Amino acid sequence: MKTDFWLERWQRNEIGFHKDKANPALVNHWHTMPVDIGCRVFVPLCGKTVDVVWILREGYQVVAAELSEVALDALADQIEGEFGLAVDKQTVDGLILYRAAGILLIGGDFFKLTARDIGPVDVIYDRAALIALPPEMRKDYAQHLMAITHSAPQLLVTVDYDREVMDGPPFAISTSEVNDHYGATYQIDEMECREQIDEEVRFRDRGLNSMMQTVHRLVAKK
Ligand SMILES: C[S@@+](CC[C@H](N)C(=O)[O-])C[C@H]1O[C@@H](n2cnc3c(N)ncnc32)[C@H](O)[C@@H]1O
């Protein structure tokens, strides 16, 4: 999947994945993550998710990465409006950096980011990042994510559905695939698995009558 696919979706405002409210998976399960207030949360492939605002409001710092400048401009505006602060935008070494106290939004290709670019990470929130990527990119994504965050704990949200009926994104990912990517490094706990199709009616239109959402907590093995 080429980066243009996503950039064009943002240009055309085809962003059905974007939600106006903080994701219940985050709100309901964040407290189970082994982190303290003030910790630094990495949000890969963040779009303009209001989940970032929720995390900031809860008292954490955020570093988030996204390809689309359209998305990050909107997210920076939202942060400015919500917290009454100025977000500084600058291009540095080919990355677009949006900065304010406790906030770093990085405009660039996730796969090219280094541990130095994102800085220290205490915990990762992955909603619609792993599942945004086709099968051939997911192993690299998982490996790169672990490398640049030193396998920080993750709250990971995946979906699964009948692959004969629909193709992604969002891509269907089984619990066994999550285990293939992360099982060697992390202890993986399934926090919740529930039917989501009634909240995602657009996928009914694509032929699905079930879409299961699973929330996983990943904590590095000792
Ligand atoms: C399905 S959306 C999810 C956005 C966000 N996590 C949310 O919950 O609303 C996937 C996002 O990943 C971004 N993306 C895709 N490939 C990327 C890459 N290589 N580097 C950075 N961002 C990428 C897209 O622009 C898109 O905004």
From TrEMBL:
InterPro entries for the chain: SAM-dependent_MTases_sf (IPR029063), Thiopur_S-MeTfrase_Se/Te_detox (IPR022474), Thiopurine_S-MeTrfase (IPR025835), TPMT (IPR008854)
Alphabetized UniProt keyword annotations: Cytoplasm, Methyltransferase, S-adenosyl-L-methionine, Transferase
EC nos: 2.1.1.67
PROSITE patterns according to UniProt: SAM_MT_TPMT
Cellular component aspect of the GO annotation: cytoplasm
Binding site for S-adenosyl-L-methionine: W10, L45, E66, R127
Catalytically driven reaction(s): S-adenosyl-L-methionine + a thiopurine = S-adenosyl-L-homocysteine + a thiopurine S-methylether
Enzyme class, spelled out: transferase
Subcellular location: Cytoplasm
GO molecular function: thiopurine S-methyltransferase activity
Protein origin, superkingdom: Bacteria
Gene Ontology terms describing biological process: methylation; response to metal ion
Family membership: Belongs to the class I-like SAM-binding methyltransferase superfamily. TPMT family.
UniProt protein name: Thiopurine S-methyltransferase
Species this protein is from: Thalassolituus oleivorans MIL-1
